[in-house]
Amino acid sequence: MNRFAAYLAVCTMLLLHSFSTCAETREKEVTRKPLVIKTSIEAGRIIRGEDELYIADNANGQWIQRTAAMLLQEVMIGDNLTLKIGVGGQFWYSFPELEGMPNTLYTKFRAFIPTAAGIYTFGPDKAPFSLQFGSFSVKYNKESKNLGEYLLRSNCYPGIVQTGGWDMIGGDFFSDRHNEALIGPRYFAQGIQLTSHLLDSTLQQSLLLHMERDFPPMYDISASYIGDFEPLPLVDIGLGVTLNHILPADKKKSTPENRKSRYRDDMYVDPNYPVVPLGLHGQDSLDYIDSISQYIDYYSFKGVKTMARITLDPKYFIAWDKFGKEDLKLYAEAAVLGVQDYPLFYDKILQKTPVMFGFNFPTFKVLDVLALEAEYYPLRFEESYYNVYQEQIPIWDIRGGHPDSLASETYYARLGTDSRYKTFAELYESDDWKWSVYALKHLGKHFSLFGQIANDHIRPYTTDARPEFIPVTRGIKKLTPYYIFRGPWYFAMRLEIKV
Predict the structure, then answer these.
(1) What is the CATH number of domain 2-498?
(2) DSSP per-residue letters across 183-215
(3) pLDDT of res. 412
């Protein structure tokens, strides 16, 4: 707690310094940029999927519709300080719609703040530095359209991956996005970011201290380093590391010392053991352990995440003006969501490593972007939020997406010994692949049309404004046309208007 208080003290000092800078520049020119007004209408439909109770009828054919608007204002004070503020609101509908539950049908509203930040620039003109503080969006993978951006958007223990959010496509409308060329998902940070631009801005490095806002325990501080090197227009390389929950607000929450989060060295899963009952050798369930003497330590939310990415643009060798700016780009990203191994849940590094790769198809300027992305993430357990949000323990949920599913016939029909998946290996090797097709067309300066077809990590929001515990579109076993067209997927479109 003392380190957490020290972090807050440092933040306060930086803010006070920025405010004093504002006071010193009162006599300087204040430039107010034009007010930006943005609105979006987004609608999509889940063609095949399941809700967190594994009930396909609650997901198949379900429409998801959202309408949002926001105001963004940017002010420059002198030559060094920029202040940004935004406010907005969104009408949305909960998922799933259920008979006999009218609260799942009502139109709902939420307010949001896309940005509330200041940026202070300093240093030599050829190698400037910038200090950003407040609430702001961070995007380090310029090519990612839907998948990827693992370093900041994903959890560590357990390694939960996110896509979308309050918008189905891209996850970038609810941000301070002002560069229309920089599209795709980004992380909404609350903290401080120091960025340097060296070697004529071909080398960009950032240090980020940010407060946890997506995954419990909340209010912990994580520290990240992100590097980007683009020596030629041909290649762009990025590296990053995050010390997740490095400064806990409450150590008892970051490393919960209770009987559900302890472990010993001989815990493992037999891949050939039947799914029901649970195949945890040495114990039938993590909830029924009487003696603590045999355990050596506790799982923790704290951990280290690493990331590497690369982009190749072969247009460097092709001098043809018919290609669009984004055409032909190849890109990939991989991350290790927890460097340290733990028994049972986190004992194999490849099962903690999502890998994404993408390609921008040439459209010869008919579209601005047409991208295909795929992801391979060989988890052994269900990618469920349940233990993180409901139990607040740093382990995968071995029971399924939602506790009520234990009592439902659909759970046993899917996971039982007489079902399609008879063993752990059969079940959790059946959903290793995700895919996404993304399209964008700017219609003049004020209109943009987005489209997306995907099987990703989308988790629509329930009537109590929380995401579904498991992705609605479960992954597929192989990235082949057979599994793609027969597996879960959804489509979505969005119209954006900006004035």
Answers:
(1) 2.40.160.10
(2) -S--EEEEEEEEEEEETTTTEEEEEEEEE--SS
(3) 38
